Amino acid sequence: MIDTPGRVRIWDLPTRLFHWVLTAMVVFSFTTGKLGGEWLQWHFRSGYVILALLLFRLFWGFAGSCYARFTSFVPSPARIWRTLRSTDTAPPLVNAGHNEVGTVSVYALLLVLLAQGLSGLFSNDGTFNEGPWVRWVSEATSNRLSALHYYNHWLMVALVAVHVAAIAFYLLIRRQDLITPMLTGDKLGVAALAAEDGSAIRLRAFALAGLAVAIVYVLVIL
Predict the structure, then answer these.
(1) Domain limits at 121?
(2) b/e string for 89-128 if b means 16 or more Cβ within 10 A?
(3) I want to staple 122 with a disulfide (CB 3.0 to 4.6 A). Which of 25, 145, 194, 216 is the partner?
(4) Phi, psi torsion values for 87, nearest 5 degrees
(5) Digits of tens for pLDDT over the chain (222 positions)?
(6) How far apart, in Å, are the Cα atoms of 90 and each of 15, 61, 107, 175, 185?
């Protein structure tokens, strides 16, 4: 059933928690990586948390509420181009979840973060700190992946900057607030199907989060 224009639940609680915990962990991981020294142990730990979050998001892309599923935000070059070319301050809403430009941003960030996390498992800092999977590859391979880990983190920074700039653009130019819905879960003034966000879906998210943590623990930490 499509709700009449008003306050509509778009983002379920698990999706919102994922978004903000991931944001915090990326900032923490970047900071500890730059501090170096003993902070690198925390850098590794935050990387494991990020991998568990990404694994959860993969599960949630198939088992989450309607707007969290990957099928709800498939990139469309034609729609993206029309949106970018539009001179309307508030172009017609195509997807109540991720907008056309946001779709590309989400996938790009997830892929770059995944590459960052996986390369970190094989990385070394040239001294005493190394990822848990270094023993499975040659020194030369570890060094190459360490270089990838280093340069990829600047790509991550660039994508985050573009992501923030896009949010500011939509807020100031398109008059679309993308931040508040990710805090409250609700969008105002839209006619759309409300996302499921009850106890059942939250229990499902809890189980999938536990599974993601267990997998990372067994494969990476144990």
Answers:
(1) 6-221
(2) eebeeebbbbbbbbbbbbebbeebbbbbbbbbbbbbbeee
(3) 145
(4) -100, 0
(5) 454 556 889 999 999 999 999 999 999 999 999 998 889 999 999 999 999 999 999 999 999 999 999 988 776 666 666 655 555 544 444 467 777 777 888 899 999 999 999 999 999 887 788 899 999 999 999 999 999 999 999 999 999 999 898 888 888 887 888 899 999 999 887 778 888 999 999 999 999 999 999 999 999 977
(6) 25, 28, 24, 6, 21
Give Cα 65 distance to the centre of its chain: 16
Which is it for the CA torsion 91, 92, 93, 95, positive or negative?
negative
Reading the block at residue 69, the tokens are 């599923």
Considering the entire predicted model, what is its pTM? 0.89
Partners of residue 9 on adjacent β-strands: 186
Angle among Cα 134, 135, 139 to the nearest 5 degrees reads 65
CATH number, domain with residue 117: 1.20.950
Domain count, the chain: 1
Return the amino acid letter for 205. Answer: A
